[in-house]
Amino acid sequence: MHSPSSFREQNTLKKKIKEDNTNSLPERILNDIKDAFDYFDEDKAGYVSISHLKAILQYVGGGRLSRRELEGYISSILGTPLKVKLSEVQEVANRIWYDSRESEFKELLKVFDRRDRGETTVEEMKNILQSRIVVPVTEEDMEEIMDLMGVDSETPISSADLAKLESLLSG
Questions:
Q1: Mean of all residue pLDDT scores within the chain
Q2: pTM to 2 decimals?
Q3: CA–CA separation, 7 vs 136, rounded Å?
Q4: Residues 38, 86 contacting (CB under 8 angstroms)
Q5: Fewest CB atoms less than 10 Å from the CB: which of 11, 63, 84, 141?
Q6: Which of 12-16, 106-110, 151-155 has the least mean pLDDT?
Q7: How much is the average pLDDT of 155-170?
């Protein structure tokens, strides 16, 4: 964990960089998808097979998706194509990315949500953070976190708020 001053400095810079967009794939993932697509598109026709699409999507899903889940994503978004374009690969990958991130943040919220309400408070977050890290969490740190999430001390914090915070911190 960062010291309080470096934490604030880092967040101030990241706020200036860009607005949160949790529905978009990170640039590194988009580049990896394009590289994989280009690799599988050996004849440079602009299409890859469904089996190659599944291989690319397994990467995006972190290898956690079953064949049935992959096929469900493909059919719900694209129907039953034999070949797919890069934009279609990106469309399905984006949905998988968004769904897996949403699930991760719901799990993260459970760390702070001791009473299983589907939300937490700033005070509960502070108590959990103080009990789990060596560096003390100050009121100023919590104010910075609230500012990044766009909440105040009375606002319930949701998994979407945690996703926004993570996006700003990692972006």
A1: 81
A2: 0.60
A3: 12
A4: no
A5: 63
A6: 12-16
A7: 83
